[in-house]
């Protein structure tokens, strides 16, 4: 959906007070400022990583606007999104629910603070998950469908970009529902039929969306239709793999992490490693990317395969030499993931246990004293892997 579910944190006393006592500490000068300008300033602060300062201004705007007004609706959404950024899930949910009271169907225009966004956030922030999340997603889809119909009716050049944006959100929301029916609601009698209907509609809305094609692949994997899953993943990759990192058509980091897992699940290991190498170049502090890359290389070793080395003549490579090269590189990636795991105090114990298990098994085969040889940045011999920087996080989710 483009926006990852934030970690749930307990609200601080200061933030609780700002919600419960409206405007108690706000100066008259600030109260008299234009709430619209305050929200604009808050948005700039949020975009520049100053979420706490953004919250202060957005809260001032919320306290200054009349009740049940479009300005209040805009302020509620702004405050809620800042709380999401701060990890204050409960407070974010409270503000989005207040916004729903003012715009229960999403029929108020986005310019006035309405629209589908609050429903999509509530779907992701739901404490109950399952059917509760589905309900919020469906409200968002209905609101987006109405906006899309209006934009298509106007058919103006100015609406083209907005239309594509809304179609993207709608397709992702439909995929979000499908994912829930593949996981939390997989026991429902009509779960498979619902998934099929949802992905069909998502493909009609956005047939060339990498995210939609990934969801299609996930559904096909759950149906044990691996050839169809591979075809969908290949199509997804082709849409962006040759684009520069800054291109807006390149899926976001979490989406590509999920893609690498899916590629590994259907044994498209070389493709998965290419995705992970690119992710490492973009963020070499990602525990998950380093971990998945190490695991992927270990799986290649088990098949007696290795990424092609442009300096090595293919005729000289044997399954044994490829296995050795992949194991050495795998150990380097996994050790880097474990180093970062401790450094950033990562919390996925299963990832750590699996990485340690893999490294221990490789030490038995390769020997313990190969520290220099095992790093992905090693400059000599067949252990060198060009174009790799690094990152790794947690174990592949069960599909």
TrEMBL record:
Keyword annotations from UniProtKB, A to Z: TPR repeat
Biased composition (Acidic residues): 368-390
Disordered: annotated segments: 1-33, 305-324, 362-399
Ranges of the TPR repeats in the UniProt entry: 73-106
InterPro entries (UniProt xref): TPR-like_helical_dom_sf, TPR_rpt
Composition-biased stretches (Basic residues): 1-12
Classification via Gene3D superfamilies: Tetratricopeptide repeat domain
Protein name: Uncharacterized protein
